[in-house]
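Protein Record: Sequence and Backbone Structure Tokens
======================================================
Tokens: labelled as protein backbone structure tokens, with as many entries as the chain has residues.
Question of interest: how does this chain fold, as expressed in backbone structure tokens?

___
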Amino acid sequence: MSGYRSVALFSDNPRTIEIYAAFARNGNHDLLHLAKNPQNIRELASKKFDLVIIEITNPSMTEIEFVDMVHSALETTPLIVVSAYFYETREIVFGNKISAFVQNPLTVQKLEAAATDFLHEAATEQIAVQPENHVDRLIQLNKRLTVLLELTRSLTSITDLDELLAHIVKMAPDVLVAERATVFIHDKSKKELWSRTGTGLKAADIRFPDNQGIAGEIFTTGLPSIISDPYNHPKSNKEFDLRSGFRTHNILCHPLKNINGENIGVIQVLNKRGGDFDQDDESYLGALASGIGIVLENALLREKIKKQLEDVQQAYYELDIAQNTILKETKTATIFELQGIIKSALEGAKPLQIIEGMKNDYIYDTRLIRQLETIEEAIRKVFRDTDDFVRQNVQWD
């Protein structure tokens, strides 16, 4: 393929670098790899490029705005967007600002086909029509709704709790143009709110009573809040900022609810860049929090099931060890020693009670029920084998 000679690439995805390099080699293009920052956009405008490629790796307003800035600087230069996001809504999000959209996973062939397609279109120059202010606002709202859709999709694809929390605290500040976010989860048994991770925080785990602090107030009332002067708020707790060295200027808080409308946690977004949070931000976080609450509860349930299964497996493992101990020591074991070993193995574990409780809790999860029944039968077999062995080897007076 030929036609372009100078190509500017904006991408922070290391997995696709070789694909872009192969594209450049095949077409005999000069490829300049640039970081996504305003300085490089200014430098871009001072040079002549035949093609600009931007890879979007996150469904965020920051990525969309970067495409807008590149288009404003180089209105007549063909622009290709590469991404796994925004494909269905690309016309709403980008309009006529881009020449082609390549959906991930990326290949050299896809990239070459996209470039070839609009090579023939380059002859017809399009004149951009400047929209009125109210149209600009509608376009901006459409973009934010599209980001919300893509972000919700990305949340539902994550099943691991730690990975989900890390994704939320990374994406929430991005879409709301803020510095940091924290998710607090309610521990019903301890009546505490806890956070496993937070953007920029070194502490891995924070716990406090569920009615304490600003997060506690949001959890207790179940109402969102915008706090412009947090240090003068009656519920403010400066301890976290003193420990981390972070200074909080403003906070946007929203409760997280499960599918039944019960509060299960709180999400906080801190320090709006360039000003204060407004009602649009609150509404947007509310829509995002609705999706977060549901996927978060599902992840918590999965973690609970995982922990219970681990407890059952550990109990079975201890029973198996006990049985093997009995078999190895049959010549000296008495019926009372046998009972002592079994009692020691089962003390505190109660595997059959745990299994029965899980079967009652997850009655509609047929796959889990089958797994539990398999474990239950294995444990009962330990009992039967042990009883048979006792009957066969212990001498009764």
In short: The radius of gyration is 30 Å. The CA atoms of residues 352 and 380 lie 9 Å apart. The longest helix spans residues 279-328. The mean pLDDT is 80.
